[in-house]
Amino acid sequence: MIAGIETGGTKVICAVADRQDPGAILATTRIDTTSPDETTEAIRGFLADHGEEGRFDAVGIASFGPVDVDVGSPRFGYITSTPKPGWRNTDLVTRLRLAPGTPVRLVSDVTGAALGEHRSGAGRGVSDLAYVTVGTGVGVGLVVDGAPFTQRNHPELGHLLVRRHPRDSFAGVCPFHGDCLEGLASGPAIEARWGRPATDLGPRQQDSVMMSSYYIAQLLATITYAAAPQRIIAGGGVMKTPGLLDAVREQLVLLVGEALADHPLTDTTSGYLVPPELGDSSGVRGALSVASDVLPPVPDLG
Ligand code: ZN
Q: Distance of CA 132 to CAs 19, 32, 73, 233, 267, Å?
């Protein structure tokens, strides 16, 4: 039996599966993310109910962060410099009080979503992909040769510095940079720029789609140049804005087209840029696959 845990900023999803079939979830639960004490106690309760006497062959965690994912680091398993109140320097792994010797692996929440989509969602059939989320923040997870990139750290491309839209005079909301990508294109940035929530822009929607696509396309161009994925999956609350995904595809052609003339992104119908398929379960499915990847394959005796 293996366990997967996705710790998100507002909710935690836990699931268990057989180690031989990590894609088939046997039990799952959803827990509100409150204080570290309360939240980790609820996770422990779920694990105690579903392990073999509380024991698991391996546990995978996909966590909001920043989180130390390096198994060789003295702070492995810590949520480090998060702005989330009460969670700074939280030793997440120790708090789960797993049986001694239980293998544990961590990835960032976005990397978990990338792995989940890779194994059982919109990323099936390719070995290299990027998962981009545009919501409260902007995050990127990469899968390279079927495995998370990297095992020691994770990309922080939300703070990418972007070229400004000529009609955009908004200062941006990033506390560190003002007008980095997250400062200009995240949900809070959209709300601050237009004075309306990103999910209810009313008459401002078309202008917002035009401006957001201009910025998000720059992130996708950067990912394409740097990591050369076979597919990019774009999720998160902002990406659900009607028309945005198509607008980003078009901006991407304008931005990159001539430089990478034969690249599939130059054909907006190629399936290079797609929405996620797994919704809320991509992160926990990624966490299960991280757990199963720790273990040696079980010999098939059939
Ligand atoms: Zn920034």
A: 28, 24, 27, 6, 20
Rounded distance from Cα 156 to ligand 1 centre (Å): 10
Structure letter (DSSP) for residue 237: T
List the structure tokens of 28.
């799952």
If you count them, how many residues does the chain have?
302
Ligand 1 center to residue 20 CA distance, Å? 41
- How many angstroms does the Cα of residue 216 sit away from the middle of ligand 1? 14
The answer to pTM > 0.85 is yes
Dist. CA 273 → ligand 1 center (Å): 24
Dump the DSSP string for 129-163.
EEEEEESSSEEEEEEETTEEE-SS----GGG-B-P
CA of 170 to the centre of ligand 1 (A): 14
The Cα 222–Cα 259 span in angstroms is: 12
Q: Which long-range contacts (CB under 8 A, 24 or more apart) does 262-271 make?
A: 263/224, 265/220, 265/224, 271/231
Q: What is the mean pLDDT of residues 289-298?
A: 88
CA of 176 to the centre of ligand 1 (A): 5
The per-residue pLDDT for range 187-210, each reduced to its tens digit, is 999 999 999 988 889 999 999 999
How far is the C-alpha of 250 from the C-alpha of 273, rounded, in Å?
A: 11
d(CA 248, CA 158): 16
Ligand 1 centroid, distance to 274 Cα (angstroms): 25
The two structure tokens encoding residue 243: 């028309």
Q: How confident is the model at residue 302 (pLDDT cuts 50, 70, 90)?
A: low
Going from the Cα of 172 to the center of ligand 1, the distance in angstroms, rounded, reads 9
For residue 173, report the distance from its CA to the centre of ligand 1, in Å: 8
